[in-house]
Amino acid sequence: MSPDPKRPNIVLILADNLGYGELGCYGGGILRGAATPRIDDFAKQGLLLQNFNVESDCVPTRSALMTGRHPIRTGCRQSVPAGFPQGLTPWEKTLAELLNQHGYATAHFGKWHLGDIPGRYPSDRGFEKWFGIPRTTDESQFTSTLGYDAEVAELPYIMTGTAGQPSENVCVYDLEKRRLIDELLVEKSNEWLSRTMDEKRPFFLYHPMIHLHFPTLPHADFAGTTKQGEFADSMAEMDYRVGQVLDHVDHLGVRDNTIVIFASDNGPEFRPPYRGTAGPWTGTYHTAMEGSLRVPFIIRWPGKVPTGVSSNEIVHVTDIFTTLLSVAGVPKPEDRPIDGVDQTAFFRDPVNTKSTRTGFVFYIKDELRAIKWEDWKLHFVYEPKVNQSTGKLESPYLFNTVRDPKEEEDVLSYNTWVMQPMMKLRTEFQRSLKNDPAPPDPLKD
Fold this sequence. Notes:
- By secondary structure, the protein is an alpha/beta fold.
- The chain folds into two domains: 9-348, Alkaline Phosphatase, subunit A; 359-444, Arylsulfatase, C-terminal domain.
- The protein contains ten helices and 16 strands.
- The protein has helices at residues 37-44, 58-67, 71-74, 95-101, 175-196, 230-251, 290-293, 317-328, 344-348, 419-434; strands at 9-15, 47-49, 52-53, 105-111, 129-133, 157-162, 168-172, 203-208, 258-264, 297-300, 309-311, 315-316, 359-364, 367-373, 376-381, 392-400.
- The strands form three sheets. The chain has a ten-stranded mixed sheet, with helices on both faces. The protein has a four-stranded antiparallel sheet with strand order 13-14-15-16, covered by helices on one side.
């Protein structure tokens, strides 16, 4: 553990497909069938962001988190089926690699989804230890699906690995293991945290959970507890698992010098019966609507981040990379464009300080879908529901996300001035792409 306040420990917990409207502290909780007391209490201990923005789905967001770069740069544009080239290329520098090179103990317990071949597993990308799934959790349904043939579609596995050694299969990841895996991941994380207490190094624990990704199935201890179905039971379990990690940090006596972040990788699931909610916003992941972009984010850093504060300032997932490097005293890479900006000053004083970001571009795969700037959102392709796009708009739609959170009333005709800062932002970003070409899309080769 780190006794040096200039090199704080870091615990990053990432929920999967957790929409803005699910947690009690974001207006959900019991209204969604399951109270979330542990996360709600955690929100009171730090800063809650109401305008934290991510990418369109699992892979793009996780790549942006690990590299501080938009996925259009890294080639991690979308989730790719097993058997196709995927993940972060060797020349990308991950958050774990940079922290580890500067003395941090690093571990990953959970869902990776940034590479499933030797050279691209977490233990190849800066994590000294890892345990979890290399891709996504819907694969847990494979072995129970009528007609599934392991000879033509790879078996899904829970895996483990240590830096410098080959990663290995632990067991087949099936529906039985799906119900057990979040419990197992907490056990692995807490065991690792206990072991690091004997080291004089700061630690970085990355704990990307499996809940609430479909199939959203709770552990037997939580099945039926909410009386509102398996999705609500899984929310109750997710809340409990987060509490277990928080309790262990406190038990080890490292709370005061540990940054703990809880966030989601994208907006809610759209497939029934596991459909989630984005609360006041429209849309789910795989769209450019606010329901896709805005997700929960809470940060606790005792004595550094004030308690019981919420903010509507814009923060992007790429900013977490840059900010965590900054607080750890680790320089960011200078040999490539880094899209994340340092939000340390804002996190420390969110009442009197503005975010260092005013907006960002939003791509889905290789298509620019929208630009967000201050209270405005410009859509080049309007898709309020997945697979219901009418294609590129002849004239973009402009929405004010404060006055029109559902993004229903186009106001471009009498707010054309907004195009100036937005087009400047787009032009600057696209100019930088010319000198920073991304790897090809593996599904288009």
